[in-house]
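Interim report, section 4.2 (structural modelling).
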Amino acid sequence: MKVCREQVAENRLRILEVAGELFKAQGFDKVTVCDVMKAAGLTHGGFYGYFKSKDDLIAQTITHLLSPAPPRGGLARIAEHYLSTDHCGNMKEGCPVAALATETLRQAPEARAAMADGVRRRIGELAQSLAGDDDRAARREAIAGMSTMIGALILARICDDPAMTREILEETRMWLSDREQG
Amino acid sequence: MKVCREQVAENRLRILEVAGELFKAQGFDKVTVCDVMKAAGLTHGGFYGYFKSKDDLIAQTITHLLSPAPPRGGLARIAEHYLSTDHCGNMKEGCPVAALATETLRQAPEARAAMADGVRRRIGELAQSLAGDDDRAARREAIAGMSTMIGALILARICDDPAMTREILEETRMWLSDREQG
DNA sequence: TAGCAAACATGATGGAGATCATGTATCCTG
DNA sequence: CAGGATACATGATCTCCATCATGTTTGCTA
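Predicted structure of the assembly:
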């Protein structure tokens, strides 16, 4: 089964795509190379035609996950989505930083570098999106605002009591809009 | 080699202690039962005399890690420690939530429940520590403040550029004290 | 269109790690 | 102080998984 050139590029993308979902949902270690290939509609053998190793896949997947630009807007507006129950309950399609940042620290240096780069870029983009008169203030708001949203999402996900999950999401959203107005 | 009763209790504690450090530093999956026992000065065989399984160890370790009460004080004061370069660079002795929360989501239900319980308790304690006239406001501040600190610590740790790590820690600290005064 | 090389499937291989089986030395109970 | 139980060591087992080896089909190039 060989396919045309384009199909090959598509396959590579599909692998990165499903790897991203699987990693975010289950973590790097619990997902096997075989799982990824099966989810992409292939078998494990072909894997090493696309990637040097599982570590290589992880690094490239992180880069892929962080390539789209995050939504723009003020913190309150962004938080409306980021801290929604929808996003909270949907790890596999949600923010890769919240889902994978901690584990990435323990992966190979390339993976960590890819995550670090993505985070740096996103902080820059958010700061621009927030920029008013004072760039320094916008950057601070970007850093702290992003920290707040990521931390809250993680805490909300850990709670097994839905009421508490909702409380964390809502209260953090309110705190962020208070801040924005005050 | 059998030891007196007390030694047994001590051994159990030592295992939980070193397991906590290893897990926080390397994650649940990269630490083996053998690693833990070796670090505790024992061999792998005795492990199943203490714990039913590795999952059991994980759950009990989380409970153990979260049993001490967190420091009290206002957000700015707490952040001074929590967002210090020291804490940032010292995963194995640092906050278990920042180090392990995400991975705990993917562990057995008992582990997740232990983490959820700890988080609930800590939010309550922080809220009390912050309580002024308005309990609701204190609780909101506790939730959002904790989220901010945890998120910032995670982001700071991901960055491989020390300057950026420092920036994240400092700016978040400032944002939190601004909020406290404003 | 002949033949090569790419893309992928199937099936090893090899190591790691969780758990179990067994042996032994030491503590505790009578 | 005898006998059993306990705490632990050593070594075996068994599964899982990353990676490699090989074969086969099919697009591509001359």
